[in-house]
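Fold this complex.
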Amino acid sequence: MTSVPLVSVFSADDSSKVTAKHIPLPAVFQTPIRPDIVSFVHTNIAKNRRQAHAVNPQAGMQHSAESWGTGRAVARIPRVSGSGTHRSGQAAFGNQCRKGRMSLPIKVWRRWHRRVNIKQKRHAAATAVAATGIVPLVLARGHRISQVPQIPLVVEDKIESYEKTTDALNFLKRFGAFEDVQKVVSTKVVRAGISKQRGKKYRVRKGPLVVYFNENAKLLKAFRNVPGVEVVNVTRLNLLQLAPGGQLGRFVIWTQSAFAHLDKLFGTYRYSSIIKDGYQLLRPLITNPDLARIINSNQVQEKVQPAKTTKVLHEVQKKNPLKNTKAMDRLNPYAKKQRVAAAAAIKANTKGTKKIKKNKALKKASRAAYNKVAASLNDATKAAVQEEQDIKVKYFSVQKGAAQTE
Amino acid sequence: MQIDEVVWQVINRGHCSFKIKTISQNFCRNEYNVTGLCSKQSCPLANSQYATIKEEKGLCYLYVKTAERAQKPKELWEKILLSKNYEQALAQIDEQLKYWSNFMIHKNKQRLTKLRQMLIRIRKMRLKGFKELIPIKKKAERRDKIREQKALVAANLENAIEQELIDRLKNGVYNEIMNYNTKAFEKVVGQNQMEDEEEREQQELEEEEEDYSDEELIFDPNDLEEDDDEEDQDDEEDDKRLFQKQTFNQLRRDNDEVKDIKKKKPRVQLQYEEEEEVEDRKKQQIAF
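Structure:
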């Protein structure tokens, strides 16, 4: 990027006031976004908080069960010794058995924690910080930031001296961050599953993350009780907080000094980090990620060869030229003219021949004869119909008369 | 512009809180989406240059987003009021989105059309009214129906009506003889006749004690029988009236003693100061 984007620092008391205009963005925010690194690092780092647990090693094995061996018409699984109870003779020990021990019972010496290369962890953190400065990513993660004046949100150091929760709340309200807090409050749900009996009763969303710098800052206590809000020192930025669930784009509120410290923390593209010894920010593979633009740019299109058209060797289905006129025309372009000429010739020929005339005459004559017969038949049928009608009329009138006389 | 590609990759491949996946299609829940579908072209997050139409209180607004304001979510969307005239609104869209991609312009016009049609429909429904569809709740319906039946049975309508009619008869609402149900009539008549016989028996026993008190207003059927010297003209009327009273008595007694069949049960002898206790009682029977 040629020009460095600029960021305003807002006054803590008044969201419309800007105390410092146009501070350059720390280089971290221009790190390439690498969700793959973040995902990998997150899954491994998330395991580091686990506490060892195990299944009771004796579970399911507290029997003197022995297999009955062959010849007893039962499966060879070890069976509980003894008698006098239902349990005797039942299968034991196997993972498939009822009351048997599980297969591969969990041991305490399971490898609970994962180590991740420092560089990878640092890259992940840097990417996560960069993602907090991209509005669409923060929105996509689900934060309600439509009323926030600026992302990344940088506020003067005054908030570090907040002691009262009311101050903290009012501050959040002023900067449009309260909507996010409200989201957290309204979506607090009792957890499904047994965990609720093990100290994790509620499932609570993540709200804004407030990042400060001075160690004596009292704002931790002020923001502690606001649901969803987390407070962290810049020097101890945690990937698990910056990208909760491995998802980039946490809504972060920076104090001015914390923001300024980022350059020292992560370094820039000009110098490596001071604090993270020898750490150099990840460089992108391509500086301009807009591939479509690149491909369609003049510089590229100039050099590019014309697009290849697919060459059709032959039809998918073979057409018979003797039957299919188009196929014939393709093979023999003159065939069309030949066909036309032949047809014309036939027509010309047939017009004047005697035979044709004779046939015509015959046709005419036969047609006439047919018509005559048809006509006479017609007349006959008509007469017959008429006769029938007369009879009917007479008959019914007679009937009527007879009825009347009666 | 620069970041759009990256954003789309992250959102599409990864997780987007606005994306809704169905078997055939992906939808976008974002309020600013023009089409409502989840695709790169219509994603309001993955396009730094974007426009939508939104409707507020019957008016259509064009919301425009440009790359310059990308970092300021509060000022991101520019809200432009569109003309109420459809064609003018289309022209406005053309003007505001000049040189934008055809896709964006076309989709915005489509959305405008759809919203306007919706508004027309809303107005029509408000004016004409519409049939509101109410779901039939099977369980509730079944329950109510059964309860109605039970209530009907519990109400004892026939008995209540009978009571009401008898009360009215007593109160003298009906002046003349009414057409009774023959069965009820005969039943009442039959019982009345029995009653008469009873009364006559009682009277024979206590003939000496008869005394006409000052309560001449009380009509005594026995009196009528003795007074045969009265005019013949009134005979029929009197007979009618007699009959009426008798039936009335019967109905009243029926009312009092529904289950008691034996009429000759001993009555409670109340101690009055006067000697003519029996007579009074008789008279009280008749008086209503």
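The two ends of chain A are 121 Å apart (CA to CA).
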